[in-house]
Amino acid sequence: MYRKTHFKPRPNLYLELRKEFGAYFFRLQALWKNISTKYPRQIFVVMLTGILFSGVLAFTIMRVKETRPLPSISETGADVSQGFGQIVDAGQALRKVLDLQNQINTVLHKDSLTAADSLLVKNAIRQLETIHHELNVKPIP
Q1: pLDDT digit string (tens) for 107-126?
Q2: pLDDT tens-digit series, residues 45-66
Q3: pLDDT at 74 over 80
Q4: Is residue 105, in this structure, part of any structural domain at all?
Q5: Spatial distance between the Cα atoms of 81 and 126, rounded to a whole number of angstroms
Q6: Residue at 98 is within a domain
Q7: 96 close to 129: Cβ distance less than 8 angstroms
Q8: For residues 58-75, b (16+ Cβ closer than 10 Å) or e, as one string?
Q9: Distance CA 53, CA 127 (A)
């Protein structure tokens, strides 16, 4: 009951690679240190020629000949604003539909209906139909 539980840590990629290839990395580090202390000027010259060579390549051979025009912000902005306007319109239509439904429900829950109540329901249904047709307009391709 009072035994000590041994905890085995999860394997870590870095530690596993170090354990497996650590001796090779250590040898490579020692070799590089030895070479860099013996030939510092030659290493510096190779680094500078590499930088200059890449600069020459970047401005001559690997130069981009055609510049593509950047996408216009106004086109995408118009699409976004149009979409946002549609969302706002749909929200307003939804609010109007909910108001009309509340009006119809209050009329339907009355004990006795009058002619004004029937006209109110007819107008509300007519408005619901117009809202439905406005929201479901299919664009002409």
Answers
A1: 888 888 888 888 988 999 89
A2: 999 999 999 999 998 888 877 7
A3: no
A4: yes
A5: 30
A6: yes
A7: no
A8: eeeeeeeeeeeeeeeeee
A9: 75
Cα separation, 102 vs 109, in Å, equals 11
CA angle at 44 for the pair 42 and 47, rounded to the nearest 5°: 110
Please give the pLDDT value at position 78: 59
SS3 114: coil
DSSP letter (8 states) at residue 111? S
Domain that holds residue 100: 86-135
Placement of tokens 């909910």 in the chain: 98
**Does some domain include residue 111?**
yes
Share of the chain above pLDDT 90, in %: 30
Q: What domain count does the chain have?
A: 2
Q: Is residue 2 part of a domain?
A: no
In the numeric block, which tokens belong to residue 117? 């109540």
Task: Report CA-CA distances (Å) from 89 to 44, 76, 131, 134.
Answer: 67, 20, 11, 10
